[in-house]
Design goal:
With 166 residues, the protein is an alpha/beta fold. Helices cover 49% and strands 15% of the residues. The radius of gyration is 15 Å and the shape is globular.
Length: 166
């Protein structure tokens, strides 16, 4: 039986990609979609989500492309995990395109996010990092809020797994 598609969101360094990838690697017939990778397919003229109207348009294109890919996997009986930083507009678009979507926000304070970010490559400026983090503090209609500060990677993955399959 195929599970509902799972979207993990949260600020930078919350563990969206590593958690979604670990879930995909340990759940039978499961794909992992990193929406940052999809957006980076635009090699000439790419715009970050915060780069005005073009950035917004490309952010929404990334959501549509991720949803199309997820739909194709689901039609083949393959589970799907997705990692993306969303706002109210992109979350509504995901829910429109993937009606059975389950959304978990990985909640993490800014100082802990900065600490975690020192342990991996970061491709954001400090201003972009802070802005994306603050956007995730806004009210979003997620299915579950998972506080991840103090959790090991393994504990974070297992907590997300329980929420996904519940």
């Amino acid at each position: 039986m195929t599970l509902a598609p799972l979207l993990l969101t949260g600020g930078p360094a919350a563990g969206k990609s590593s958690t979604a990838l670990a879930l995909a690697a340990t759940t039978v017939r499961t794909a992992f979609i990193d929406v940052d990778d999809i957006r980076q397919l635009v090699k000439n003229g790419g715009a970050a989500p915060w780069d005005g109207p073009e950035g917004t348009a490309q952010q929404q294109l990334g959501v549509r492309n991720a949803a199309n890919l997820a739909t194709n996997f689901l039609a083949a009986g393959i589970n799907v995990t997705i990692a993306d930083v969303v706002n109210s507009t992109t979350l509504a678009l995901y829910r429109e395109l993937l009606p059975s979507l389950r959304v978990i926000r990985l909640a993490l304070g800014l100082e802990e996010a900065r600490r975690r970010a020192t342990q991996r490559p970061v491709f954001l400026t400090d201003v972009e990092f802070d802005e994306l983090h603050h956007q995730q503090a806004a009210s979003l209609k997620v299915d579950h809020e998972l506080p991840v500060a103090g959790l090991s990677r393994e504990a974070q993955v297992e907590a997300a797994r329980r929420l996904w399959i519940a």
